[in-house]
Amino acid sequence: MWQLIEHYYSQNYTVFWLAEFFHSWPHISYNGLKKQDSTFDPTNQKYIESLIFWAAVPILWLLLTLVLSLFFSCCLCCKRRRSLDPSRARLSVNCPQRFLIIASFVCLGLLGVGYYGNETTAIGIHHFINSANGINDTVTNVDYKINKIEDDLGSIIPSEVASLESELRKNVSNTTALGIMLEMTASLTQASEMAAANLTEISEKISLSGLDSSQLISNIKYYDYFRWMGMTLILTFQVVTCLFILLAASKASRYLLVLSSILCIVCILMIWCLVGAELFIEVGLGDLCVDPSQYIMTETSKKSEISQDVLEYYIQCTDSSLNPFSLAITEANNYLASAHKSVFSLEGMVREYAPSSQTYVDAVGVALADVSEYTQHVTALVDCTGIHKDYITALNGICYHTIAGVGFLLVSGIVLGLLITLVLCMSSTLAARIARRKINYEVDQEDPFLPTPNSTATLERFRRRGQEPTDSARVTPPLAPISPTRPHSQHGFGRSVPSPPRYHRYEPIPWP
């Protein structure tokens, strides 16, 4: 994957093209719509407003999407009312059904990209945390070693030298030899003090006073866990939604489609809010990763007393870089060598003039050996190689893994949001085209007013009734003449009724 984004690990940091891409976006403050400086500065209110401007763009698109979806639903409802005419053919459901099935699989693929981006982001943050802890451990180890050196040179060796001088004054009767040995002990004490002073200078230059990032690292680790867990749950909910859409489209069920539309609306709200947050982070990371060294040096000078030459030494760490601790380490080693020479000379004279004082000389020699070993460790630790490697690894974690992971989340979120919007519209269309399910009522087959079982004939009868002329234009046909021989009529319901009674014109009876 890193070959795809043209990333190769190296000893020095190179700017990722994705960081340059997001850094090139115009930084516009939402307050006044004025263009701002793109230099990464989270303490600047105007700069934060320029990031919020880009975060608000997906939110505005979300509002527009909801309005358009509502307008589409209203139009679809009006169109559905006009389509209730039984003489019009019902539209096919195959096209929207197939679209929903294909879109569901595409959504699942996009969610796979989102899972990958979430994991890549977590890996980058994990690398950053480990590298930052490595830098803190290195500096803490330097402080520990120098404190041990100061303890040995400042308390153990002077105590042993004072005991040695007291024994020499008691046991050595030769004043000349005693004077020489006391001069050696004085030289030993002075060399120890000078070595301790030079090593203390190293500790002061590299001290983390005011710059301890252990609390910041702990907070990043804590919040990243919940970020990863929350994003995983959101992606899982979206997977369930896509599977539910697939089920609803396969079964062509109106109720499942309505429920899937509700889930789509929830997904759209989640997706575009997340896209806004991811765009905020991505533009900020792009600004940081274009020139991270300048930001680190500026913030360090504000919060700590570390000199600029020390920071440049660890950040650049080239073959031509001058070690700012080399002079102090060289002088400390020279003073330790002088102290070792004094101990070696003392050891020979004490063995000759005061053998009982040999234990004090041996104790001083052991303490100096420990100091020399600690000094070698400090020399290796303050070298720029280890800290610079951790620094580059931390930058690669943030400016390559994390920015690429958030980029995957951003792209998948944008495409997924647009696709689910189409799925929402198509679900409503498919639900409108699906015929309502007939409800089987219990009817009495002996009911004389029961319509014919042929529904087509019933609809045709209603249609013809609608085409009958109005009452004003309706012509009443003449009554049929009454036949005296008319048989009993038969109704369509199978029951016989007698013929109506016969009426005769009244004729008067003639008088006789």
Write the layout of secondary structure elements.
Layout: H1 17-23, H2 45-82, H3 94-171, H4 175-205, H5 214-251, H6 254-290, H7 292-303, H8 308-316, H9 326-353, H10 358-381, H11 384-433, H12 455-466
Helix pairs in contact: 1-6, 2-6, 2-11, 3-4, 3-5, 3-10, 3-11, 4-9, 5-6, 6-11, 8-11, 9-10
- Low-confidence segments, given as residue ranges, are 1-8, 469-475, 482-496
Q: Please write the string of helix (H) and strand (E) elements.
A: HHHHHHHHHHHH
Total domains: 1
* Termini separation: 132 Å
Q: What is the count of helical runs?
A: 12
Strand content is under 5%
- Content-based structural category: mainly alpha
Shape: elongated
Largest sheet: none
E-strand count:
0
Radius of gyration over alpha carbons? 47 Å
What value does the average pLDDT take?
A: 81
The percent of residues in helical segments reads over 70%
Region (Disordered): 450-512
Protein name: Protein tweety homolog
Membrane topology: Multi-pass membrane protein
Transmembrane segments: 51-78, 99-117, 225-248, 255-277, 403-431
Outline the structure in words.
- The protein has twelve helices and no strands.
- It is mostly helical.
- The chain has one domain.
- Helix 3 (94-171) runs antiparallel to helix 4 and helix 3 packs antiparallel against helix 10 (358-381).
- The protein starts with 16 loop residues before the first helix and ends in a 46-residue tail after the last helix.
- Residues 1-8, 469-475 and 482-496 have low confidence and may be disordered.
